Amino acid sequence: MKLKRLFVIIVTFVVFSACEESSSFRKETVDRAIENGKIANEGFLRSLNFVKGWLTKTDSATGLIPTNLIKSSDVWEPHNSAADNYAFMVLTTFLLDKDLYNGKMREMLETEKKFTSRVNSLPDIWSFSKHNFLSDELKMNQVIFGTSEYIKDGLIPLAEYTGKSPWQERMMEMLTDLEPFLTKTDTLETLYSERPASVEEVNGNLLQILSRNYWMTGDQKYLSWATRIGDYYLLGARDLSQVEYLRIRDHGCEIIGGLSELYVTLHFANPEKKELYKPSFYKILDRVLEVGRNEDGLFYNAINPKTGEITDKNIVDNWGYIFDAYYSVYLVDKKEQYRAAVLNGFTKLNEKYRNYNWEGKSHDGYADALESGINLYNREPVPELKSWINSEMQVMFAMQQPNGIIGGWHGDGNFARTAIMNSLWKTQGATIQPWRVDVILGAEKTETETYFALTAETDWEGKLVFDAPRHKTILHLPIDYPRINQFPEWFTAEDAKEYSVVSSQKAITGKYSGTQLVDGIPVKLKAGEKLVCVIK
To answer: How far apart are CA 286 and CA 524, in angstroms?
Structure first.
């Protein structure tokens, strides 16, 4: 009986009018949930407006979006148009507009596959004016770089949230076609683009892709490919603690995150191999902490680990991408020094980094900085960090133009990515289907309960849908370690658990499996009605 009770979560629904608030609920908590709902709704609406704005800028012949609206309006690029912009148009419509998701987004995918696939399924840069590839010459390094970016930045986050879909199929198709290049003896040394840190960027992308796909599929070959890259960095060939240039911001920092994902994977899949890697990996992490941070505990853009020289003193906007690696190692090794480094990075945010000049005060810099905070707040709910996120989200929101466009380049998708992350935090992962702009869902977590509040201006009928532990159900990860571009989990309903639902609406009262909660509870709201749900 005791075990049975442990697997039962009581869910209480109470519907009340604005003037008849039930005494069984804490008014201040309900009010906070409603306020969170307003913030969530703003983020959702801004993300949908971003999609609609960009859909007015598509190429007339292909229907694809350009890389940007000024300098690269003639090209579609896998590492920009697809990875950073299109993928989060897809996610936005998945949540907020199923007609667009199943219609225009799917059409764009099929068009992309038809026109831009150059080496089997691997895409290359497409010129709208030429109606052909931009370069007459096949540059395989460029194709590999673009593909790795498209998968890591766009398709993996999409697959982690939505599960099986045509976009997941696209990812797996491209990964299969990358295999011959990933197993070439010279690949690790020759992958590059014009960026000086591109070898680390591509290899870091691949480590993240391969580690997650190993868990998702159970296919040992992905882990074998990943450990080949790990051997290169952690068994002597390229010691990052002694190189003369290490880019810590994006387009370089991917290798630190990638090595941490492989390290966590090996902790469970091959502990002996992990122990071989540990001294070298700790050496890299310790060196970055030693010479790569400013007095506030945040990272410089680039350093010379060999000499300790700071080669770019600007502060990394995507600081959480690096802290994710430290926190992941902390989770498996319980190394408190690394957790302390993460917590130390939060201490001056409110004092010195409000309205900050992230990446030239661009919306993309703000998106990465805010994603950094949201993902880590999910693990370490520090009040000061919450305050900073709430403040700076409004700064980012203000950068959007009335037509939905933000900056007019591929980083606009990152605005939507982070806005949706923030909105899902404010709803504790719950969503409504169908979404409608006047239906407001918000949530607030207390020490023992989670409150959900739902209101509508006009009559609405649909489902209140709860989140699942996606790291288990989709990726099959052994632990939910922090990772780049993931959408954190807040309240989740697990398949194996039974939930009792008590409601003043008799139709809702009853027992539900976790699967039923994830599928969604049918709800009817009258105009002006308020539904409060408390889960404890």
So the answer is: 55
